[in-house]
Amino acid sequence: MNKVVLAVGAHPDDIEFSSAGTLLQLREKGWEIHMWNLANGNAGSKSRPAAEIADQRWQEAQNSARIVGAIMHPPLF
User: Whole domain around residue 24: which residue ranges?
Assistant: First the structure.
């Protein structure tokens, strides 16, 4: 049986701040890690366009997933 965990966060960075240590420990024990932010983070800046900040947050999420050895799933909204 494959061991799979899905970490879900409402916003970009939520998973990293709340669960990164646990995810790393699970990966070391052979679990397949998936990460999924529900929102794309496009409201994360008052000075930059929404599409630009959403793209930056997606790139950051993919980078953190690579560090953890996870599969990053695209946000819903």
Answer: 4-73
